[in-house]
Amino acid sequence: MSHGGVLLTVGGSDPSAGAGIQADIKTFEVMGVYGASVITSVTVQNTVSFIRRYDLPPDLIRSQIRAIMEDMDVRLAKVGMLGGSDVIKLVAEELSGFRVPFILDPVIKSSTGGVLLDTDALETLKTELLPHAYLVTPNIPEAEMLTGIEIRAIEDERAAAIAIKKIGAENVIITGGHLEGADLLLDQDGRFSTIGGELGLIEGDWHGTGCTYTAALAANLATGKSLIDAANAAKRFVVDAMRFAHPVGKGLIPLNHAGRLIRDRDRYLVLEDVKAAVDEVLRHNFVPFLPEVGSNIAVAIPGAATRDDVAAVSGRIVRCGNRAVQVGPVEFGASDHIARVILAMMRFDPAMRACCNVRYSDEIIRACSDIGLEMAEFVREDEPEGERTMDWGVRSVIERLGHVPDVIYDLGGMGKEPMIRITGKEGKDLVSKVVKLIGALES
After folding, report:
1. The three-state (H, E, C) secondary structure of the chain, written as one string
2. What is the pTM for the complete model shown?
3. Which of 3, 45, 210, 320 would bridge with 325, disulfide CB 3.0–4.6 Å?
4. How many domains does one find in the chain?
């Protein structure tokens, strides 16, 4: 497909913004391509149910298409909800007349239960529009309706893809959210490929996965990716949008189309936060605070789930001569000990995302008290069998207090150095406590 230009989406409006035109435009926007739209129908739906639809007059749809085509450089179109036979014929005529390649997402029913394609229009779709499509992306039920083939195994899916290609489409992708989470691609050269995914591993009842997938695929094609690469990237986009989604209504969960951007933003901000925190601490005399195993400063992204969501100093902060030095760069996944402390804190209080470990001494404990830091201790000998020390220790302190204290410490054990852990909401908050502590110890 060609680079640049404008992407056009033709389809229905969803006032809940989880699917249809709204989902397409959101997808185009966050993927860095310009999206224009032609509305074919106004639906009345929310996350719970589909209430009604109002199909726009064909002449109004035609006028919308021509207004865009005569003004903008439309390189690729995505066609979704069309409603009836008249509109299908109209869209086929207009896209052919303007020589615009298009992806057909043959939506027949909405995930909220609405009928989006008239029963007598299915044959029109197959004869008038589908044969001209660069790509057709039905899900399993849609592929069954298009071909009459009952799909229960991969062999059935392949047979359905072949049948759809025989109708005339250049390429076919049967999306497999309804069959083990994988998609099946049959390309214009007759080759089959599997588009992997994790959709089946993410729990939830979703709204708009099909629209979002096809829109992301179109955006990837428009920016120059091959079909197989565009499809794989689109699948990853949908998985990200599901991971970062949260309920906004009482029913199905719309995707968070900006999830990937939010994640990347959060990771960048956390990296910068840790770098600034380390720089600030190293401007002071941090040597008296260094444990034998070294110190670290770590901050997690919001919603962190694993150590790979926690940024820290690779190689830790150690003593070199009479100075404290940063061994390696700030990276995600660089900490285990402090990352586990933070993840345990966040399970109780998601806002507590930062931690620094320092040497245990009676003097430092007194300094913590002098500057008003709340402290709590756990005893390693009390750890139940089968528990991980940091997970259990931090959890036991928080459960006892009902909140996360400023300082969590222990006196060590067999082969384990005593340690003080200073907590905070972010790097800036954490460092303010550490710097006050340094000043208190020096005074």
Report:
1. CCCCCEEEEEEEECCCCCCHHHHHHHHHHHCCCEEEEEEEEEEEECCCCEEEEEECCHHHHHHHHHHHHCCCCEEEEEECCCECHHHHHHHHHHHHHCCCCEEECCCCECCCCCECECHHHHHHHHHHHHHHCCEECCEHHHHHHHHCCCCCCHHHHHHHHHHHHHHCCCEEEEECCCCCCCEEEECCCCCEEEECCCHHHCCCCEECHHHHHHHHHHHHHHCCCCHHHHHHHHHHHHHHHHHCCCCCCCCCEECCCCHHHHHHHHHHHHHHHHHHHHHHHHCCCCHHHCCCCCEEEEEECCCCCCHHHEEEECCCEEEECCEEEECCCEEECCCCHHHHHHHHHHHHCCCCCEEEEEECCHHHHHHHHHCCCCEEECCHHHCCCCCCHHHHHHHHHHHHHCCCCCEEEECCECCECCEEEEEECCHHHHHHHHHHHHHHHHC
2. 0.78
3. 320
4. 2
